[in-house]
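Purpose: get a first structural picture of the assembly so the mutagenesis plan has something to point at.
Setup: two entries, given in the order below. No constraints added.
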Amino acid sequence: MAEFVTVGRADEIEEGEAKAFPVNGAEIAVSRVSGTLYGFSDICTHRQCNLSLGGEIDGTSITCECHGSMFDMTTGEVLEGPATEPIATFPVREENGELLIEA
Amino acid sequence: MADPRTFVVVGAGLCGATAVATLRAEGFDGRIVLIGAEELPPYERPPLSKEYLRGEDPLEQILVRAPEWYADEQIEARFGTHVTQLDAKAREVVLAGGERVPFDTFLAATGGHNRRIEAPGSELPGVLDLRYVGDADRLREAVAGGARAVCVGMGFIGAEVAASLRTMGCDVTVIEIFETAMYRVLGGDIGRALEGIHRDHGVIMHFNDLVARFEGDGRLERVVTRGGRIVEADVAVVGVGTEPAVHIMAGTGLDQPGGIPVGPTMETTIPGVFAAGDVARHDHPVFGPMRVEHFDNALKMGETVAKNMLGAGQVFDDPHWFWSDQYDVQIQMAGFATTWDRMVVRGSLEDRSFCAFLLDAAGVLRSSVSIAWPRDVRRSFELIRKQVRPDPVALADPAVDLRTLVPGEG
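Result (C-alpha cells, whole complex):
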C-alpha cells in the first residue's frame, strides 16, 4: 500500500521550481505553484528526460527541456507532444515543515 | 451516425501520424486512411543518428504510437504502400498497382528524400546515407568493433553522426563544403563554437572542401577530396541535405522543387488538399514562405493541419524550434534568420555555454540559438512570434527573464 514518506524539508521547494526525490524506486518531482505543492513523475514519457532538470514551469504546466513535451502537473495529462502518454501524479503534503510524498 | 467523409493522409512519419491522432482527438469519427511507403508504423527519425544508431534505444521506443494504436483508433493503416499520384480532379489517390482510394479531404505529409552526391564511386559498398531505420541498422553494423568513418557534410546529420560514431569508438573525419560546423544553420561564430566541441572530442574536420570521388576495390577504401586530401575509410556517411518528396503531386502544378506550396493554414490552391511537414513550402505569417525539416515542426504542423482539415482555419504561426544532441551538449534554436545585423550573446561563446540572439536591422528578434543553455531559447518564443524589439542590454543579462520582455507581460 502506498504511504506518505518524508523526503526532506518543504522549504527546499521554491515557488515556480521543481525538485526530484527518489521514493520507493520512483523519481518523483515536487513543484510549488502559487504556494501549492504538486507531485508528479519526474520522468518524461517521451524519451525519459528528467522534467525537474530545466523543465519550464508556467502555471501548473511543465515543459520538458529536451524535446518540448508539456504536461499538466495537477493531472499528469499531455498538453503538448511529442509525448503521447501521461505522467503519474502523486499526493504530496507539508507537515511541520517537512515534505511528504505518498508513493 | 459517423461522419460520411473520408480523410486520406499520405506519408506515415511523425507529421502524418500526429495529424490522424489529432483528427480522432478532435472528434472526427469518419474514415481515416493513413498510407506510408515504409513497412514500419510511424517512428521518430531524430534517434536514428543518435540513441537508436548507438544501440541505446530499441525500435519500440522510437515509435510514434504503439503498433496496435492504429487499429484501436480505427485508422486504416496501409503501411508498405506506395502512392503514385494524386488525381485531384477525381479526388482519388492512386496506389502502385492501380488501386484508387477516394477522399474528401487530403493531406500530403510525404517528407523528403536524401540528396545524392554526384561523385564517382558513390555506389561502392560502404558509402551510406541515413533516413530510414534500415539505414541506421546498416551503419551500426558497418562500424561494429570500430571503423574509420568519413562524414560527408557537417549539417545536422553529419554533426550528429560524427558525435555518435566518436562515442562508438570510430575514427571520424568530416569533409564539409562550408567554413565551419552547421554553418548554414548557425552561422560562423556559433558554428565555430560547435566545431570546437567536435575538435575536443577528436573529430578531424576539413572545411571548404568537398568529395571528388570514393575509391576502393569492390568496397570503399578511401575518400579523395577536390582539395587533394586522401582519407582512408571503411565507411562514409553522406549527409548533404534533402529534397521534398513532391512526386505524388505531379500533374497538379503543386510538385514544386522547393516543396508543395501551401497558404498560412497549410491548404494548397486545391480546396481540401493540404500539405504539412518537411514537404510543405508554407507561407509563414512572420518569416514568409519557408520549408522546414525539423521534428517539432512536423509535430506542430500535424496538429494544426488536422484541425484545419476539419475547418478550423488556424494560421500556423509557430516560431519554429529545434534541438540537436551532440556528445553531452544540446543545441537549440528558435525562429528563422538567414542573415542578421546584430548578435547579442548571453553567456559565453568561448565557454560554449550561451544563448545568442539574432536581431535584424530594425532590432527585431528573429532567432535565438543556444549551446548548453536551452532555457532561454524556449523563453524567447513569444518575442520571436510577436516580432518584438527587445532591449539588447536586457537580452545580454542572464538575470533578466526573457518572458518579462514581451510587451504587456512585463
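Chain B has three domains: 6-113+242-309, 127-238, 328-405.
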